[in-house]
Amino acid sequence: MRLDDTGLLTALHEGMFQQPLWQDFLERLRQRTGAVYTTLVFRPIDEDAIVELHAGPPPPAHIHNLFVEKYRRDPFPYRHMREGRVYALAELVEPDNVVHQSFLADLMVPQGMSDMRSVRVTEPSGVDAWLSCAGGRSIGPAVGALLTALAPHLRIALRAFVALEREKLRSTLTSEAFGRLNFGWLTLDARCRIVDMTAHVEQLFQRTSLLRRGRYDRLTPQSPMLDRELTALIKQFAADPDARPKALNLSRDPWMDMLVAPMRGGSVATGSTPVAIAYLSGDRWSQADRRDQLVDLFGLLPSEARFAWVIAQGIPISEAAQALGLSVETARNYSKRIYAKTGARGQAELVRIILTSVLAIA
């Protein structure tokens, strides 16, 4: 069998984006070879996990029950197969192995699978995959030649799949970390339209009116003044990619800031070209909420919590006293009691304790 243009390779390389994975490829391979079943089994980086994919008619109920209750898994020694070499069924079934002979007689032959061809491939990171075609008389040397020709393409597809899964994992972990820090980003094109963004920015749109996705996906601040400033900034970045980033305060209570920077190194994976990236960071809670949480967490009095939250922003005690209408002496007494209750040895340590407490992920 020649590896000609019958859509087999296209289905192989598109299979990593399917659910179930590689379903079209396995079905095309089954039809091409006349196999009863085609299977693709691979062991990811986690040695305890095995992904088993197949195409073919569902087995009769009694066969399925026998497989589950007696065997649980195909017993043949696939792990010992040499990488890239196609094996026939006779090379995997040991004549004196009772389990092998029983599996063949109980499960394979009754379903019309008297022969099989199987190949093992390994991608560079060490992930193994086994591609098999099992059936009757049609499963012979021609199917073996087809699997030999498919092996390098399967290796490439497996490598791309592993790389994609790793990037998904990294993206998920990064996104979770950003979420705990109330941090997110979005990219904007020259018309201030959103090109891409983290999930947390979408959540922000839902819970606050400070920013919204406007008409034609345009990022629209609530403040008209900020809207004009952001629009001018994006135009500047579109004209000059080396322009300086700029920080904008969106709200003081709850606190939210945005750093807008020119986008360096565009993406070919999006329809629009991003010219800027905006980093959003802020608090989901109001100052009143945070003061209540400080009371609960450290046993502060409401007046102490109010003062503690202000100086936790790094504001000097004298300025905090003036902002809250307190005398400097009263403010110093408050700070001593706050330090004692929180275990802080000064204002700098108080900032660290509060900002690294559970309030940071509340």
From TrEMBL:
Official protein name in the record: DNA-binding CsgD family transcriptional regulator
InterPro entries on file: Sig_transdc_resp-reg_C-effctor, Tscrpt_reg_LuxR_C, WH-like_DNA-bd_sf
Entry annotated with the keyword DNA-binding: yes
Alphabetical keyword list: DNA-binding
Phylogenetic placement of the source organism: Bacteria, Pseudomonadati, Pseudomonadota, Alphaproteobacteria, Sphingomonadales
Domain of life: Bacteria
HTH luxR-type domain location: 297-354
GO molecular function, one term: DNA binding
